[in-house]
């Protein structure tokens, strides 16, 4: 009797969760034949407890979908995630364009990019912006002469590669500023601005959506959603040209069918659990878009020119 | 043994001895088993929570050093240019280390006088001074520096304060031990002719302990160069910050250039320490003459 009751309740839960999912079956792939677990790496820079808390929903879906336990691993900086996947110690990681290029330059056979996100305006790109405190009185990049500048992470696209390249092409080099520092990530960079450690720091935004919300997705949106940033405190001094969105990437050690499967799973999560999709994509996105290496060739060239191999 | 009947008390002793031997053996087996169990579960837990596997990773062990040296070799003569490029950063770090060693050593000297039982007769003062040094020493520089960097912002000042505090504690302990081991005859002699407490320290203690104090100080300078390099990794600037960025970019040649500079600095400090100590004591004390 009790067994039957539990069964009915479970069945009911299953049906209701499925109906919540719009009758759409979660894609399944039995990874247990190949792997004991599925290891997801998060690009470093945000504090580890937030990373795990916000990405856990993805790991739960992956566990259900792949029939192996999915685990999340966090890193102090971008290089940690990059070296781990090169060393075949991670199965999946979401990279930025520059960190993907860094992995590709070091070992072209290590990872394969599978998909990236499209922002609500329909662009598969985002922007690097320079933000300062509103009460600092700074209005534009020119005001930064003799001030303290913060970059996010040496392996970040929007936090270093693109702004440093574009600044150099505008004839602004490091001597223009009082000091130039790496802040250890996007979140520490903006926190450094708020605390007054640096006058302005580069970070990434989708560039569409409302400024008050920190745009539709990106680091500022993430910080607003977490309640650690009020956009009224910030002012934007500069914005880059469009940067290609970073890829969700898989280790090439995985079976090839995983590429299609993980693309489907990400789309399924986006379609069926908006909250989780928001956690994975640092805000609101329109959809996932399939990508391959050719999408990042420009960034690979830019990275080789700026940072080298 | 078996043929002869042993007296009762000896038999009893033998039985007892065997019993004790068995108990000891049992204890040994149990504790060895417990250690193996702890090690095994610990390794298992670590292995489980790691993305990589120790066993799978072991053949990658030398990949990184090999890659570093390959890249250095590929860089050719431009490597020497890299070494020169990082000299200003090294000087910045060296300045941090030297400044904090000097201030730290002065504080240590003051503390150590009060922590030495042969100079201060009041036990409370000695106890308090020793505990102050314990507290200063207990905090690793890194923990202090991270906290201070968070409070004071990214600059060398929090790092310098952190190193000073740790240096004062660590050197103070060594200094006070050196002072306590000093020969009391000089002090008593000075006391007998009515010299003041300060002149007893100045003429009775310091001449005896100065070489050893200086030697400890120079050793500390060496340690502090390393410490201020590490603090660069967490935002104090200098060569550590550069090294951190280079490691993140995986620039093998430049990483080895910075490493070379650091090793060179430590080696030079070591030579300088030996040289100064010999000058100070006429080359007859501690260091054997090379002939």
Summarize this structure briefly:
Chain A has ten helices and twelve strands. Chain A is of the alpha/beta class and 309 residues long. The relative contact order of chain A is 0.18.
Task: Please describe the structure with a list of short key phrases separated by commas or semicolons.
heterodimer, A: 309 residues, alpha/beta, D-Maltodextrin-Binding Protein, domain 2, six-stranded mixed β-sheet, 10 helices, disordered N terminus, B: 291 residues, mainly alpha, MetI-like fold, 12 helices, disordered C terminus
Structure description:
- The complex is a heterodimer of chains A (309) and B (291).
- Chain A contains ten helices and twelve strands.
- Chain A is an alpha/beta fold.
- A six-stranded mixed β-sheet of chain A has the order 2-1-3-11-4-12, sandwiched between helices. In chain A, strands 5, 6, 7, 8, 9 and 10 form a six-stranded mixed β-sheet that branches.
- In chain A, helix 3 runs parallel beside helix 4, helix 4 crosses helix 10 and helix 8 crosses helix 9.
- Chain A is globular.
- Chain B is mainly α and 291 residues long.
- Chain B folds into two domains: 48 residues; 204 residues, MetI-like (MetI-like fold).
- Chain B contains twelve helices and no strands.
- In chain B, helix 5 packs antiparallel against helix 6 and helix 7 runs antiparallel to helix 8.
- Chain B is flat, with a radius of gyration of 28 Å.
- At the A-B interface, helix 3 of A face helix 11 of B.
């Amino acid at each position: 009797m009790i067994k039957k009751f539990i069964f009915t309740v479970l069945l009911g839960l299953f049906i209701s969760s499925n109906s919540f999912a719009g009758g759409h079956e979660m894609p399944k792939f039995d990874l247990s034949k190949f792997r004991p677990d599925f290891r997801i790496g998060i690009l470093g820079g945000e504090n580890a407890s937030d990373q795990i808390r916000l990405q856990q929903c993805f790991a739960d879906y992956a566990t259900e979908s792949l029939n192996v336990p999915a685990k999340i691993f966090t890193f102090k900086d971008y290089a940690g995630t990059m070296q781990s996947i090169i060393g075949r110690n991670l199965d999946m990681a979401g990279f930025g364009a520059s960190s993907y290029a860094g992995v590709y330059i070091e070992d072209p056979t290590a990872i394969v990019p599978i998909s990236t996100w499209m922002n609500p305006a329909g662009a598969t790109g985002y922007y690097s912006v320079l933000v300062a405190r509103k009460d600092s009185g700074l209005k534009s990049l020119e005001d930064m002469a003799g001030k303290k500048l913060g970059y996010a992470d040496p392996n970040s696209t929007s936090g270093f590669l693109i702004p440093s390249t574009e600044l150099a092409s505008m004839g602004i080099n490091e001597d223009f500023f009082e000091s130039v520092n790496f802040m250890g990530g996007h979140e520490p960079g903006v926190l450094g601005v708020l605390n007054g450690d640096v006058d302005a720091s580069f970070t990434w935004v989708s560039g569409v959506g409302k400024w008050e919300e920190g745009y539709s997705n990106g680091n500022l949106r993430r910080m607003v959603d977490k309640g650690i940033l009020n956009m009224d405190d910030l002012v934007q001094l500069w914005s880059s040209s469009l940067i290609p969105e970073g890829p969700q990437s898989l280790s090439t050690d995985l079976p090839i069918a995983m590429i299609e499967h993980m693309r489907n799973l990400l789309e399924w999560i986006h379609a069926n659990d908006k909250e989780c999709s928001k956690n994975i994509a640092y805000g609101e996105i329109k959809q996932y878009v399939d990508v391959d290496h050719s999408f990042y060739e420009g960034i690979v060239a830019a990275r080789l020119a700026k940072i080298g191999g | 043994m078996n043929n002869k009947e042993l007296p009762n008390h000896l038999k009893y002793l033998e039985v007892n001895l065997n019993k004790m031997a068995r108990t000891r053996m049992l204890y040994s087996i149990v504790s060895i088993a417990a250690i193996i169990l702890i090690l095994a579960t610990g390794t298992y837990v670590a292995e489980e929570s790691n993305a990589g596997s120790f066993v799978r990773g072991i053949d990658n062990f030398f990949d990184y050093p090999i890659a570093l040296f390959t890249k250095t070799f590929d860089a050719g003569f431009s490597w020497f240019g890299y070494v020169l490029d990082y000299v200003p950063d090294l000087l910045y770090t060296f300045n941090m280390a030297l400044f904090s060693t000097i201030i730290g050593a002065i504080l240590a000297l003051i503390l150590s006088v009060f922590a030495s039982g042969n100079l201060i007769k009041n036990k409370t003062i000695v106890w308090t001074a020793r505990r102050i040094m314990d507290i200063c020493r207990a905090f690793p520089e890194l923990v202090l520096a991270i906290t201070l960097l968070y409070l004071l912002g990214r600059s060398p000042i929090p790092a310098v304060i952190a190193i000073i505090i740790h240096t004062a504690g660590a050197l103070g302990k060594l200094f006070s031990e050196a002072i306590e081991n000093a020969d009391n005859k000089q002090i008593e002699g000075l006391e007998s002719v009515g010299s003041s407490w300060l002149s007893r320290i100045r003429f009775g203690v310091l001449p005896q302990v100065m070489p050893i104090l200086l030697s400890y100080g120079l050793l500390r300078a060496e340690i502090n160069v390393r410490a201020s390099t590490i603090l660069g990794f967490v935002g104090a600037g200098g060569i550590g910050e550069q090294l951190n960025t280079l490691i993140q970019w995986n620039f093998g040649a430049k990483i080895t250039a910075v490493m070379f500079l650091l090793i060179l600095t430590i080696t030079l400090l070591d030579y300088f320490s030996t040289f100064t100590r010999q000058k100070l004591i006429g080359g007859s004390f501690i260091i054997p003459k090379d002939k």
